[in-house]
Amino acid sequence: MKYVIIGGSAAGISAAKTIREKDAAGEITVVCRDEFIYSRCQLHLVAAGASTAERIRLSTPDWAGRSGISLLGGREVVKLDPGIHQISFSDGWKAPYDRLLIATGSRTIFPPIGGVRGPMTYGLRDIDDAVAINRARSSVRNIVVIGAGLIGIELAAELARSGLKVSVVEIADRPLPLQLESICGSKCAKILSDAGVDLHFLDPARMVHRSSDGTPICVELVSGRKVPCELLVCAAGVKTNSEFAAEAGVKTGGGICIDSHCRTSLPDIFAAGDVTEFVDSVSGVSQTTAIWPTAVRQGKIAGANMVGENASLNINTGMKAAISLLGTHAVSLGPVTSPDRQWHKHVFIGTDSQGRENCKILYADGNILKAALLWGDVTNAGLYHEAIVNRRDISADLECLGSFDAAKRGKETLNVL
Amino acid sequence: MRKKLIDRSKCVGCKNCELACITIHCDGKNPFDPNLDSSIARARNKVELDNGGLLFPEFCRHCDEPACVEACMSGALTKGDDGLVVCNHDYCIGCFMCVMSCPYGMARPSVKNGGKMIKCDGCRGRKSMACVDACPQRCLTEIETDDRTGGQIIYK
Predict the structure, then answer these.
(1) Which CATH number is A171's domain given?
(2) CB-CB under 8 Å, A45 with B115
(3) pLDDT tens-digit readout, A7-41
(4) I need a surface site. Which of A5, A59, A288, B92 has the fewest CB within 10 A?
């Protein structure tokens, strides 16, 4: 059996490992654009010089060889021909397959504003971006990051820590508008501004002014304000790398549509990870996601089914995020920023034994937990996750949380569920 | 593989298992003098009340399909050939996606700043398990079995 996997990150590698466990003799080829396998979630650390490409490497150089997997880097897909089960790559190589996995991830969208493309302007999706930002960093003083999502704020915080003047431009009214509601959004904004990051909310970028050599001078916002920068990073959204699949007749929406078995609309073609679109088991809505654990899980299920098993994602959700920002942690679970009007919002705020302010915001439909946001102490976040995906009755837990009178007792660890 | 047999009906909530766990992982002298200054001073187990008000000693299962390992984006968490799921603190950057993913709450964030995940290592490399040794009630006992599946914990 010939297995071809396109993409060498979370989903692709977990699929390759799963296939090897289940089919010792199968011929597995992983083709990817990157030259080595690395932790994509740590790119902001490399970009800010807090880590290195070598340190975020996820496998030893001989991993593929030892596992009997051909790992071919530096190649991109140009054409998929499902009729004859063949896929062609940028170097002219044409690979026949019996089972194909598409795990090509997504790429940066540069916002549609004047002057956005040019030198000293990057996204942050792969190691080349991170290395380029780190190199550019040493010759500049001011950096603008467009977008206050996960990538944007983690990068902004690290760059500020490295001593640069960083400004973040965001169209919404708070950082992490898809993960944090207003209370924790304010806390997050405070951490960033305390770290010296300039924040511009509700004021999107209108155009980028550049000097004669093309390098950025400043980003002009809709309000007219001009934010100086010599380096620009766009982290305001991504687009799935699914065009070649759509051209080949694979059903796509925002990404490649998959069912709970990670099958696409065409036989013998599977998809997993950020490139996919699926019905989220928490929201019930078809959506794309960019969450590492979700990609790994999908890769495992896809791998098992490529070998001929009948594995299914009983829970498939991308509505979760763990946030780590300059020593403060948060976990966002479920539709925290788009709750149903019927749900009750329970807010618990207290201080723990270390003097840290902890905040738990729970959205419940009656006694059923629908969404949760833990700020500060994230102990037991997995229990909240479990309660949400399994629609567990939490009446006893709410009573327990509510019985803490934080104001009267001064200190309380609100970690009971 | 040695496994931990738990008879929760014998638990009296003394939390000696928690103290012993902190002591052994943080170079404390003895359970009366644990090194609480260590950045990883936190028990890898816990005894809590369940919703029915009954004591429940909770430990890492060392799952067959560990959600923490699946969630780990740094490569710090791995399940070894010995069946134990352990964290290599040299690689952990404290993203806490494992904390978000463990359905038992046994992937724990360190309390002090510095941010490492903390979990049971099954006392790998030690001749016996610290929590079992410390249990005065024989609620926890160690058994030896050839079965490496089903995790490391058996609730009676």
Answers:
(1) 3.50.50.60
(2) no
(3) 999 999 999 999 999 999 999 999 999 999 999 99
(4) A59
